[in-house]
């Protein structure tokens, strides 16, 4: 019996060591396929309009790229469309309106909606991401829990739009 007990103890210790050394792989936004729903100008367009306070300089990093956000109203007024970003569940693309150096409007032109699950996630995540963008006045926003890929795609598209604006 002592041999069995010591064997079980060694196996348990080895399993515990492996478990403690396990590291999850970093999420990537490599194109995997899927479809997206283009909603610009259609009923159900997700948009928000607000005027907020001054902007402050900040940096954000997502997927290995860094974008500097607006500092002291240096962004050019206009409407800028971010790159369409492929995520695991579909394409995300945003459009940003800047006036007097401030982000005044954000629209989700495309978001994952290839099935009812993706669509329901996007329906709660996109408005939250828009609200956070308008409050932060930058691409440095929190991901929405349960919508990580959509959040990452949103931030990447948002960053590219802000770079176009000179932010």
Shape: elongated
**CATH topology call:** Sufe protein. Chain: A
Average pLDDT, to the nearest integer? 74
Low-confidence parts, pLDDT < 50 over ≥5 residues? Answer: 26-72
Helix and strand pattern: HEEEEEEEEHH
| Rg calc | 21 Å
Largest sheet: 6 strands, antiparallel
Give an account of the 3D structure.
The chain is α+β, with helices and mostly antiparallel strands. The protein has one domain: Sufe protein. Chain: A. Helix content is 35%, strand content 26%. Strands 1, 2, 5, 6, 7 and 8 form a 6-stranded antiparallel sheet that branches. β7 (90-99) and β8 form a beta hairpin. 37% of the residues are buried.
Q: What are its keywords?
A:
single chain, 167 residues, alpha+beta, Sufe protein. Chain: A, six-stranded antiparallel beta sheet, two-stranded antiparallel sheet, 3 helices, elongated
Structure, briefly:
With 167 residues, the protein is α+β, with helices and mostly antiparallel strands.
Write the layout of secondary structure elements.
Blueprint: H1 2-21, E1 36-38, E2 46-49, E3 59-62, E4 65-68, E5 78-81, E6 85-87, E7 90-99, E8 102-112, H2 116-136, H3 148-164
